[in-house]
Each structure stands twice: as structure tokens, then as C-alpha cells.
Automatic annotation (TrEMBL):
It comes from Setaria italica (Foxtail millet). One of its GO terms (molecular function) is protein serine/threonine kinase activity. Pfam families: Pkinase (PF00069). The lineage of its organism: Eukaryota, Viridiplantae, Streptophyta, Embryophyta, Tracheophyta. Residues 470-490 have a biased composition (Basic and acidic residues). InterPro entries: Kinase-like_dom_sf, Prot_kinase_dom, Ser/Thr_kinase_AS. Residues 1-25, 286-313, 444-490 are annotated as: Disordered. CDD domains: STKc_phototropin_like. This is non-specific serine/threonine protein kinase. Residues 446-456 have a biased composition (Pro residues). Keywords: ATP-binding, Auxin signaling pathway, Developmental protein, Kinase, Nucleotide-binding, Serine/threonine-protein kinase, Transferase.
């Protein structure tokens, strides 16, 4: 699927990752060098304490322990501590490699290392995008989002060491399913975990903007992990406490409007280091939201009218960007119109993502990219005919899935499920009835990938020559994608 960009959040330029006239291979340039720079993208470097901070939900991992030992012994970590095994994939900003630690630190742990050429990105005016991705990864600490173990620089390359997902992505996993589509129960599992990941990102002030099966990876335990944050929009956001609607949520626009009315309860003070006081402040182009009593930056002196079942709304609703970024088939109508978009685009892409998981295709795909964009703006949502369900229960589940997709794919972002109060109303939908959101990690996934084959030690790898790149492959200039897959608007 073609991916488009018109980057008003960050500047854009040429699409080639390697600067013109340069055939430098990042491995051939620095692979044999023992001098590795460890400054950050912007020229500074975090203190060991901050860069080595363990993520609470993965603090006991062997991967973390191995990284900690290197930092304790060497005082820093760099490219010379890793052995690259093979290339896993490539994106618009760089290559991703499977790697492991060299002896004597090797513990058998596998990592994914994203490598970007800073000189090439600076030439294309995309260095800021790589910096924002790194900043986002540094703040994440969630079971369904990437863990950043280390980031450093080597010559003119910037490296991000993250966890390795051996299960591939959901696009490939869908191809293996009967009819190339997931069952309703499998789709519910993956969509539920994706909702939790988006909820956390929005709480952290991040609008993801690039949800699609190719960006949802499968960990070794079968649970998901969102990846690729180079299109994300980073904002400041303050959680707001709202009264819970005492009536059952019926999914109507009126019901969602009632749920969005703020109570007299003062805003919750942020408890996370990434949450800031004050009004939402987007780093990109932003349209200021009108101030309301009891809103951000104001504290009402009136007592709370009703705090029964309050909920925290962490949706960065005031974030606004006019960037034309994303994948054609997943673009929200407000992105195409250029009138400005906010966090509601993530709930639109969730609807498209869910539709593709269940039906094997996206809902508005046309004969060409232009036709696809026209369909997104004008064509009403339609569902393909499905064979008669084996039971009434399965049919009811299918109808609930269609109802959720219909509400997520509302063309008006103000009427879209999740567009105003975020994940809270999405999670209350009947499609997720019976889902214990607090214990999703304990549910057995639909598929558990086979363990990856053990990586041979360096000496054995030289003899067997398996899973290692040849010198010719290492020295080939980086070509991010096939010519017919990605392009950019300027």
C-alpha cells in the first residue's frame, strides 16, 4: 500500500536515504573501527542513570540485565558491543537489523537495531523526524509498545536498540489465515490490545497516525507491539476527570456528547514525568481549543456534582496538525481535506485496521490512489456479504463488530467513536463485552509464534555462513522501498 507524506510537522525533501553521489555502507564505514561516538542526535548524551533506566514492567528481563552489565563494565554502550545477524526490514528512515551482544557479554538475547544515516536524513530534511521517534521511544513503558534498551551514535549513524519480535507482523499473519482473514474472536483480541496501546500513547501526548497491520508486530508470546513512530505527532496533554454517563452507552452521537461534558471536578494533576501542567501544547501546527470552566489550566471552586465512576480522559483533543501523512487506504477524511486533524485520526485508522483484519481488505480501496482518496471522502461505508453464521451467537458478534467499525469510521471526527473522550467510550462498546481490560496480558493469544532458531556464535557463523550478510550485501547502498510502494508530496 502506497504511503504518502506532506510533512508540515517536519520538513521533507528527497526520498533517497543515501545522499547523492554517496555509496557508503554504514557497516563498511564503521564495522572495523573501534572508535564509536555515543553522542545523541542533537549533540548531547544522556547520563548513564537516565539512559539506563529500566522499564518497570520489564525490569527483570535478561535483555535489560545484559545491557546493564555492559554499561557497568564499559561505562557506555556502542555499536562495538553488538554483532549484526541479518537485516529484518527497512523503512523510510532506515534499516532494522537482528543483532546480539558480542562475547563476553553475549547471553543469547536477541535485539532489533534500527540504524539511520543522519547525513542522509539531514539532506532530506528529515532528521527532526528521527529525533522525535527517539524521544517517543525513550518515554514508552507499556506491554504493547516497544522497549528501547539503548540509543547511541556511531560515526554518522544513529542506532536504536529495541526488543525483537519473532512473530513478524499482522499483515503476514493474516495471509496465513483461512480466506486470508482473521476470525471475529482473533480480531477482537488484536484490536483490544491495539486499543490499549493507543490509549497509552494518547495519555503520553502521542498521536500515532500510522496504524496498519504492517506496523503491528507479534512478540514471542503472541501478544502485539506497535512499531514505527516516524509519523507520530508529539504533544503535551493533561488528563481531565469527567463524570461517567450513568446511562448505558448506546453509541449515539448524543450519548457521546453527554459523556464529553466536563464535571466540576478539577483536572487531575499529572503523575507521570511525561505529563505537563497547563493547556495542551502541540509541537506541530495547532489550533487552540476554546477554554471551558473546569478545563485545562482552570480549577473550579464548586464542589463536585457527581464523582461516581469518574473516568480520566487523556485524549489530546486540542492537538492539530495539517500534515498530509499516512498510507492512502488508512487516511482519515480530515487528513485528506487538509482542514487539520488531531487524535481522532487514530480511531479512524483503528476502524480501517479492524475492517482489514476481518474482511481481508480495506473498506475504501479504489482502482487508484486518487480513487481511494475520493472514496474515503464520499463513499459510504459498506460491508461485504458474509456466509450464514454457524450459530446465532457468531452472527450477533459479527453485527457488533460491524457496529463498532461503523462508529469508528464516521467521517466527521466530532461524531466518531473515541473522537472526543478517547478510549473510554471505545472500550465500552458491546463488541468488547466480556473483555477484562486489566487482564488482557493474561489471555492466551490466537497464535503463539514458534521460538526463533538459536543464533550461532560468531565462530560457528563463519563456518556455516547462515543468517549472516555477505560483504557485498553489507556494502550495497540502502534502498528503503520498492519504487512503486512509497512516494511523497511536496
Amino acid at each position: 500500500m502506497a504511503t504518502i507524506r506532506e510533512e508540515s510537522d517536519y520538513d521533507s525533501s528527497r526520498s533517497s536515504l543515501t545522499a547523492p553521489g554517496s555509496r557508503r555502507s554504514w557497516i563498511s564505514d564503521i564495522g572495523s573501527s573501534s572508535s564509536v561516538s555515543v553522542r545523541s542526535f542533537g549533540g548531547g548524551w544522556d547520563t548513564p542513570a537516565s539512559s539506563c533506566r529500566h522499564k518497570p514492567h520489564k525490569a527483570n528481563q535478561a535483555e535489560w540485565e545484559a545491557i546493564r552489565r555492559i554499561r557497568a563494565a564499559a561505562g557506555r554502550i556502542g555499536l562495538e558491543h553488538f554483532r549484526l545477524v541479518r537485516r529484518l526490514g527497512s523503512g523510510d528512515l532506515g534499516n532494522v537489523y537482528l543483532c546480539q551482544l558480542r562475547e563476553p557479554w553475549s547471553t543469547g538475547c536477541l535485539y532489533a537495531m534500527k540504524v539511520v544515516d543522519k547525513d542522509a536524513l539531514a539532506f532530506r530534511k528529515k532528521l527532526r523526524r528521527a529525533e522525535v521517534e527517539r524521544e517517543i521511544l525513550r518515554t514508552l513503558d507499556h506491554p504493547f509498545l516497544p522497549t528501547l534498551y539503548a540509543d547511541f551514535e556511531a560515526a554518522h549513524y544513529a542506532c536504536l536498540v529495541m526488543e525483537f519480535c519473532p512473530g513478524g507482523d499482522l499483515h503476514v499473519a493474516r495471509q496465513r489465515q483461512p480466506g486470508r482473514r482473521f476470525s471475529i474472536s482473533s480480531a477482537r483480541f488484536y484490536v483490544a490490545e491495539t486499543v490499549l496501546a493507543l490509549e497509552y500513547l494518547h495519555m503520553m501526548g502521542v498521536v500515532y497516525r500510522d496504524l496498519k497491520p504492517e506496523n503491528v508486530l507479534v512478540r514471542g508470546d503472541g501478544h502485539i507491539m506497535l512499531s514505527d513512530f516516524d509519523l507520530s505527532l508529539k504533544c503535551d496533554v493533561v488528563p481531565r476527570l469527567l463524570r461517567h454517563n450513568s446511562h448505558p452507552h448506546n453509541g449515539s452521537a448524543a450519548g457521546r456528547a453527554d459523556a464529553a461534558k466536563p464535571s466540576c471536578v478539577p483536572p487531575i494533576q499529572p503523575v507521570l514525568s511525561c505529563l505537563f501542567k497547563g493547556v495542551h501544547k502541540c509541537q506541530a501546527k495547532e489550533e487552540a481549543a476554546p477554554s471551558r470552566p473546569g478545563g485545562d489550566g482552570e480549577t473550579s471552586s464548586e464542589p463536585a456534582a457527581d464523582t461516581t465512576n469518574p473516568e480520566v480522559v487523556v485524549e489530546p483533543v486540542s492537538a492539530r496538525s495539517k500534515s498530509f501523512v499516512g498510507t492512502h487506504e488508512y487516511l482519515a477524511p480530515e487528513v485528506i481535506s487538509g482542514q487539520g486533524h488531531g487524535s481522532a485520526v487514530d480511531w479512524w485508522t483503528l476502524g480501517v485496521f479492524m475492517y482489514e483484519m476481518i474482511y481481508g481488505r480495506t473498506p475504501f480501496k479504489g482502482e487508484s490512489n486518487d480513487k481511494t482518496l475520493a472514496n474515503i471522502i464520499k463513499q459510504p461505508l459498506a460491508f461485504p456479504r458474509v456466509a450464514a453464521a454457524a450459530s446465532g451467537r457468531e452472527w450477533d458478534e459479527h453485527l457488533r463488530a460491524q457496529d463498532l467499525m461503523s462508529q469508528l469510521l464516521a467521517k466527521n471526527p466530532k461524531k466518531r467513536l473515541g473522537g472526543c473522550t478517547g478510549s473510554a467510550e471505545v472500550k465500552r462498546h458491546q463488541f468488547f463485552k466480556g473483555v477484562n481490560w486489566a487482564l488482557v496480558r493474561s489471555v492466551r493469544p490466537p497464535e503463539v509464534p514458534k521460538p526463533p532458531p538459536p543464533v550461532a556464535p560468531a565462530a560457528a557463523a563463519q563456518k556455516k555462513k547462515v543468517m549472516m550478510m555477505s560483504r557485498k550485501e553489507r556494502q550495497e547502498p540502502y534502498n528503503p522501498v520498492r519504487p512503486d510502494e512509497r512516494f511523497e508530496y511536496f
